[in-house]
Amino acid sequence: RPSLSKVSRSALRDLLSLSIPIFLYQVGALVVNETQSILLAHRCDLSTVAAYSIGMRVYMLIIVVIQIGTNSFIPALREAFERGDHDWTTRAFARLLRVRIGMATAGGLFLILFGNTLLSLWLRRTDMAFGRGVWIAMAFLMVGAMWGTSYAELLSIMDRLWLNVVAVFANGTVTLLLTYYLSPSFQVQGAIVAIALPTALVAVFLRVFGRRLLVTASPRRAPGSGSSKALS
User: Fold this and answer.
1) 3-class DSSP state for residue 193?
2) 35 or 108: whose pLDDT is higher?
3) In 10 A of CB 67, how many CB atoms?
4) DSSP string covering 17-73
């Protein structure tokens, strides 16, 4: 049963060191995902907000499929890293990245070619359609998002949570600034580009730190965990 006598200052400190950056990361994600529509309502009109929301629902449909299909990689990567098997972690993460980028590229090409057809089947109406530029921007966002998300998860695996916090707040700030300036002229396409550009830049930032930390991480092998080839 819970007992105050079993609560220690070190345990609370360890818990806070993880929970605070995770909480702030979620707040930053809300800034990116939820406030853009409010800004669009002020800078454009409600029809633009509605069109943007519908387009992003199509985008999220493919993203969710990719994440559901690949999230099972993450626990194994964490376990291998904790065992000190960094060679396997590096190879497995490279495979995960290739799978996700491949799926995102395929999904983006599908939207470029058949996005409006998918919309008409989903909405059962033909008056809602986007130009090719919107679907291209969405495909670019899809690849950049999966690239950045993969490296963000790698940093989480290595307990480098504050780097993710910095990245997500930088992403949110630049996204809102670009939305403010691009949306009045380019409407939905401008709003998607406003997310895609900082997402790609943040992905590069996370990649640099993720690869560097993975290479320089010191092995932390538990007693009796076996050789580094155990998971290969």
Assistant:
1) helix
2) 108
3) 14
4) HHHHHHHHHHHHHHHHHHSHHHHHHHHS-HHHHHHHHHHHHHHHHHHHHHHHHHTTH
